[in-house]
Design goal:
By secondary structure, this protein is mostly helical.
Amino acid sequence: MMRTPPSKTLATWLALVGGAFGLHRLYLHGPRDIWTWLHPWPTLAGLYGVQRMQALGQDDRLSWLLLPLLGLMVAQASLCAIVYGLTSDERWATRHAPDSAPRPTGWGPVLGVIAALMIGATALMATIAFGGQRFFEWQIGTAPIDQRNSRAMP
């Protein structure tokens, strides 16, 4: 049975929409790809961090560690969408459909790349900002501000 060659447009949009869960790898490489099954775990851990932060507040240290995983997985999925969308049609055909001629893709992958740039850059910058803020708050210490000021004063 002959399998139809994977669409560059569909792979780009799957990476953008469900790439954090590995849907693009499932589409391109099938269910036997180990990386497909490793994608959901950090994403689910990050979502658990979001849930903990909503339930317990921003002082929960476990959510500090888990939440950036979600941002990094969204950023890597966006990077995959950008790479897929910017791959030339000839190279895509050589890599994913060596027995068929290259198909022109049109504007679908380009629009996916534009969306991936916006989403990926936002997720990555938010992750860096959140992680940096929490790190410096942790460096300062957890004592209330009035206790720190009373120790500094003679």
